[in-house]
Amino acid sequence: MKKHQSQWTHREKSFSAFVTGPLLSFWRQRQERQFVGKDGIVVRYMCMTAGSHKKAIFIVPGRSESYSKYPEVVWDLFNCGYDIFVIDHRGQGLSGRLLDDPQLGHVAQFSDYVDDLERLCELELSGGRYQQSFVLAHSMGGAIATLLSQRHPSLFTATALVAPMFGIILPMPEWVVERILNWTASRPHLREGFAFGTGRWHATPFGINNLTHSRVRYQRSLRCYADQPELQIGGPTTHWVREAILTGRYIESIASELHHPILLLQASEDQVVDNHAQDRFSLARNLAGFPCYGDHPQVMEGARHEILFEKDEIRADALQKITEYFSTFSR
């Protein structure tokens, strides 16, 4: 494990050789599975397992992501001794879409995401094979995993939240956005159309991206979506934005009631989710006597939103924090 972790700090220098060599061979061994969720939507997921592994990590991606983006993360955690499961949320990735236009990022109710993750865990944890099961959740996935832990506080041994979406950065004051969203709620052509300022998928140049400082990882992500058009998804619908805001408020309101173990990693340069919402979430847990690990969000200095796809030094630090945190439950 330590030998593998030593690679984390200097992988970008030979990233192309890694991706087209050992990582590609590894990824070909994945298993792809599916189940039918609410309203008949097919939900797809992947897994990488080994008979010797007694621990599992469920990776819960963010909005618009697919497990096809996560081979490197899966490689790193699998080689630390974990079986890995990664879900493609309904409406994105290889899972079934909810609207006629597959570019629209939509969900009927945010709880549908939670139902899907719950179903995946039922399928893969029912045999009692694992001594510990963990969740690693990014952005929107952080909100989903948090809500599932509210339903089932002992489902996961511990949770690592990476830039969780407890609030989103909006282009105008929230009260203005709320009025607009409430007005569109009864107008389907607006409710189920692209939110203001968003549109169809396009390849944003690295120089103006706000997700990562790692050029090679960003370019690999773009190629993933360019080579598989079925993965492409544009901006969220107006209704999705409304659901996201309401979900963030709800999570803040119940933060003091959530007692399951949490590590929260915060990106210091995040321009996608609201770090202040994460701070309020952490403070509420502190005041209730159930602080996040370290008593506050662990700030990843210099990191943009996609911490797990950042440049080596930031990414390695994040993975080290996550694996060390999970390992404390195995002692």
Order of SSEs: HHEEEHEHEHEHHHHEHEH
- The count of DSSP E runs of length 2 or more, i.e. the number of strands, is 8
CATH superfamily caption: Alpha/Beta hydrolase fold, catalytic domain
Considering DSSP H and I runs of 4 or more, what fraction of the residues is helical? 25-40%
Into which percentage range does the β-strand content fall? Answer: 5-15%
Instruction: Give the N-terminus to C-terminus distance in angstroms.
Output: 16 Å
- For the residues shown, what is the average pLDDT? 95
Q: What about the largest sheet?
A: 8 strands, mixed
- Shape-level CATH architecture: 3-Layer(aba) Sandwich
- Overall SS class: alpha/beta
Question: Number of helical runs?
Answer: 11
General description of the model:
The protein has 331 residues and is of the alpha/beta class. It has a single domain, classed as Rossmann fold (3-Layer(aba) Sandwich). It has eleven helices and eight strands. It has an eight-stranded mixed beta sheet, with helices on both faces. Helix 4 packs across helix 5 (140-151), helix 5 (140-151) packs across helix 9 and helix 6 (174-184) crosses helix 9 (238-254). The longest helix is centred in the C-terminal third of the chain and has 17 residues, at 238-254. The relative contact order is 0.14. The model has no long low-confidence stretch (mean pLDDT 95).
